[in-house]
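Hi Prof. W.,

I finally got the Concanavalin A-like lectin/glucanase prediction working! I wasn't sure whether to trim anything, so I left the full sequence exactly as given:
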Amino acid sequence: MKPSNLLPLCSLIVLSSAAATPRLSSRRPSSHKLLHTPPSFVAHPGKSAFTSSTSTTQSSRAGVHLSSHPDDTTHLITSIDAFFTIPHANMPTVGPTAGNENGVYQVSYWVGIDGLSACPQASIRAGVDTFWDSGMQTTNVWYEFYPSTGPTDFANMTLKQGDTIQVLVNADADGKGGSVEIRKYETSQPRVSAVWTHEFKDQGSQLCLKEANWVIEDYPLVDRPEFLLPFANFTDDAGVPEVYFYGMHVNPPGAKGGVLPWAWTEFDVEVIDINLEEQGGKLTDCKTETGAGNSNTLTCKRIVGDA
Ligand SMILES: *[C@@H]1O[C@H](CO)[C@@H](O)[C@H](O)[C@H]1NC(C)=O
Ligand SMILES: *[C@@H]1O[C@H](CO)[C@@H](O)[C@H](O)[C@H]1NC(C)=O
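And this is what came out:
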């Protein structure tokens, strides 16, 4: 038998005489800290596929990865964005990780430039971690300027599951710095926005401006790096188990360095899914579609195996 790298569910069990806790969505940040390892992933064989392949490679990451062609010096990626409503993290009710009423389940969502196959040395990312922790739903907001600044909480920005946000990641045209911004939307107006900027000081950690990533990820906790937390079920406000990113642009107009949104057809587009044998196999089913004005959408359904 292969050693399992899934955190044994029993190790998180807290003895409790209480019956199933009602679902509560809290604005209080989570006390759980995830190990946001640098993005670098195993290269996938995908080409210009707008739906994910049926590859069975183990992967803790889902979403869409855009990269410019190796000899393309025109389509530099200096600004990317996306809107999404933060799904509700829930305890799975089917699959091998289902039904641990006193356990912790997790899903993270992030947007970032570089850090993957073509440019592993530097990246800028921002995202949210969502937890279902014995019935309590908590959310952390973070950014990272890798390798200069590890994942850092967005000071004074708290979000809860069900909030609609826009994540913007901007790089300087020379790749030596950038900024991240998260805007919280109520009706159509941004109500709260938090921005962090950073310059890469050390030589050698410069962005290549070649990759854009919109990701859903399963992470381990900082103090248990060898075990992935069980991946939560996630549902939209209507209870549908999926997350929907929209208004996904590469270099949107008005953004720093933005000229026009680059059409996605200028890039290699690769859709990836989470596939973890211990947790039941394929855990997401992602698909991206072209929208208006060179924007795209990404829909990832939460599945177990092929169902
Ligand atoms: C996720 O929740 C939905 C809605 O309750 C349910 O239909 C689906 O089976 C759940 N999936 C998992 C993996 O628990
Ligand atoms: C965070 O604090 C700074 C400084 O006090 C303030 O300017 C900014 O508006 C705050 N942001 C949020 C999202 O509350």
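The longest strand covers residues 123-133. Does that look reasonable to you?

Thanks,
D.
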